Amino acid sequence: xxxxxxxxxxxxxxxxxxxxxxxxxxxxxxxxxxxxxxxxxxxxxxxxxxxxxxxxxxxxxxxxxxxxxxxxxxxxxxxxxxxxxxxxxxxxxxxxxxxxxxxxxxxxxxxxxxxxxxxxxxxxxxxxxxxxxxxxxxxxxxxxxxxxxxxxxxxxxxxxxxxxxxxxxxxxxxxxxxxxxxxxxxxxxxxxxxxxxxxxxxxxxxxxxx
Length: 210
Known about the structure:
By secondary structure, the protein is mainly α. The chain has one domain. Helices cover 71% and strands 0% of the residues. It has 7 helices and no strands. The longest helix has 32 residues, at 178-209. The protein is globular and about 55 Å long.
């Protein structure tokens, strides 16, 4: 996707291509939710699109179409620092013989890949303001999901009093609700790690120009 995007960058064909990517993300987002509903019916524990990757997919669809810096910040920091955890330790039942398997991986391809795309194609270079915005939005998300999960016994954002059926980083973060604090700190730390190379590069460039 990045190779094609770079070749078409700045052209009318490039804009059509990115609108097509946006439409593809929306199609995956809607079909992913619809498939889950068709298989399990309405279940407030799973059906509502409130996971962080659900929000990041929406940001990705909008970032492809609108190219706003705030959206680029979200897909870079949330997609690469946080959404990548779903790829490293997928909470997924079933193998390549199930439709859910392919929907999961295609869905997360865009969730994580959009962060790479905005850097490689749009020339996005995160600064301190971008990092601060992404972390602030993350805090808002965690606070909102923690409240919803605690009130209704759910586990959206994995900040409820449950852990996934598969081994994940959550297993070593201690009991709930304290582990939510560690999760927030680790998430902010991961986003900061993604910002540091650009900060160091900018510092080196300024020093060489000076």
